[in-house]
Design goal:
By secondary structure, the protein is an alpha+beta fold. The protein has a domain at about 45-75 and about 115-265 and about 275-280 and about 320-420: Outer membrane efflux proteins (OEP) (Up-down Bundle), CATH 1.20.1600.10. Helices cover about 70% and strands about 10% of the residues. It contains 10 helices and 6 strands; from the N terminus they run αβααβαβααβααββαα. It has helices at about 1-25, 35-45, 50-70, 95-100, 115-180, 185-220, 245-255, 260-280, 315-380, 385-420; strands spanning about 35, 75-80, 100-110, 230-235, 285-295, 295-305. Helix 7 (about 245-255) packs across helix 9 and helix 8 packs antiparallel against helix 9. The longest helix is centred in the middle third of the chain and has 68 residues, at about 115-180. The protein is elongated and about 135 Å long.
């Protein structure tokens, strides 16, 4: 009995120990789940419900390929005539041999003009067009994800700056509070500085809200279930110059853009529709064989029938598909011009954003920082007015936020250029 009690106590102690460990683990903060831009793009392509729904169109088209390749079903016919249903007394072997007639036959529709092969070609070409169109939708999704990712990076950078600026200004307020208590500044100057603290606190709140909204919008694009609720992002705002001229980028886009590839495949699909319409203009042949048993005699009959193409030779559909072919050719031309224009506009936008970033980095950032430090030092020494110091502080904050926005604009222009060229690998 004592041994059993000791074992029971040990089990209870171990259970209490593991329960305490589990509770402690739940109380500890979990490591943040962070994703990079490349990971966000992959998650979006795998989990975005809209793109997953669009991809089902490819499977639908492949199912239509199966339908297009089906052959006509053979026809089986059977009949029995002169059955003495209303004279049951006549049912006999003699009546079966001399009076009743039995027919059984089989028929098949022979498709002429290669209709089945033309249907298969048309269905497969349409599948290829759909695949290119889905790739173009993926291109648009990548741009939206990258755009939202850059917005999240900007919000994160602004939040870090706002917090650092708030912490710095809180120290300034504390210093001036001590100066006011020591009689170095007036109460009015101290209150003016203290009230300015509200602006820095508002900046932190606004930046925090912008970050939450950007991450929420990004989560919707990559799929809500693919990342946890408190996920984060990896990366930073940075300036990466692009090497290569607009002509090289336009040539790259003409090779890579999926919407242009869809237009090119659309011409082939239109040609397949013309061939199918011509094949459908050929009349099909019906062939059948019938076995008949009449009056103790068995006979066979062969039937052939084919419509005479005097009036209906599918002229309207052939003419329509020819116009559709011309439409596909004109659409390709319009798409090529759109591609070239998109690349040109995106390139010029990237260059404009690049110039603005270089202007800030050429000296304006340093000038605003130096002006702030000089004004603060002069104010503390009594050589500058309070309004001059606050104006320098405001200019510094505005310049820093504008610089971050300019880098974000440049990164967005890069994403626009990637979308315009149809590839993320820019020279």
């Amino acid at each position: 009995m004592r041994t059993q009690c000791k074992k029971r106590n040990r089990i209870l102690l171990l259970g209490t120990f593991f329960t305490a460990l589990c509770g402690l683990a739940m109380m500890l903060p979990s490591a943040a789940y962070a994703i990079s831009l490349d990971e966000a793009l992959n998650l979006a392509l795998q989990n975005n419900p809209s793109i997953k729904a669009a991809r089902t169109q490819i499977n639908q088209n492949k199912a239509q390929e199966i339908t297009a390749g089906l052959r006509p079903n053979p026809l089986l016919s059977w009949d029995s005539q002169f059955v003495p249903v209303f004279n049951p007394g006549l049912f006999s072997t003699n009546t079966l041999d001399t009076l009743q007639q039995f027919d059984i036959g089989a028929g098949y529709l022979i498709e002429r003009g290669g209709k089945r092969l033309r249907r298969l070609d048309a269905a497969r070409d349409q599948t290829h067009v759909t695949e290119a169109q889905i790739a173009d939708m993926e291109r648009a999704l990548k741009f939206n994800v990258a755009q939202q990712f850059v917005s999240a990076l900007l919000a994160q950078s602004n939040l870090e700056f706002a917090r650092a600026d708030l912490e710095s200004f809180e120290k300034t307020v504390k210093i001036n509070e001590d100066r006011f208590k020591a009689g170095d500044i007036s109460k009015n100057d101290y209150l003016i500085i203290k009230v300015q603290l509200l602006q820095f606190q508002n900046d932190v709140s606004a930046a925090r809200l912008a970050r939450v909204q950007a991450l929420t919008n990004l989560r919707q694009l990559v799929g809500y279930d693919s990342v946890p609720r408190d996920y984060d992002i990896e990366g930073k705002l940075e300036y990466l110059p692009v090497k290569g001229g607009v002509e090289d980028l336009q040539a790259l886009a003409l090779r890579e853009r999926p919407d242009l590839r869809a237009s090119q495949l659309g011409i082939k699909a239109a040609e397949s529709q013309v061939s199918l319409a011509k094949a459908n203009g050929k009349q099909d042949l019906n062939v059948s064989f019938n076995y008949s048993h009449v009056s103790q005699a068995s006979t066979g009959s062969v039937f052939f029938n084919i419509p005479l193409p005097i009036f209906n030779r599918n002229q309207g559909e052939i003419e329509r598909t020819r116009f559709a072919q011309t439409q596909a050719q004109l659409t390709l031309k319009a798409t090529e011009e759109t591609v070239v224009t998109d690349v040109r506009n995106a390139f010029e936008g990237m260059k404009s954003s690049e110039e603005i970033v270089k202007l800030y980095e050429s000296g304006y950032l340093k000038d605003s920082s130096d002006s702030r430090e000089i004004s603060e030092f002069a104010y503390r020494q009594g050589a500058a007015a309070l309004l001059d110091f606050l104006d320098a502080e405001r200019t510094y904050r505005t310049t820093q936020l504008a610089y971050r926005q300019s880098i974000a604009n440049y990164m967005l222009s890069l994403e626009q250029l990637r979308q315009a060229t149809g590839t993320r690998l820019l020279p």
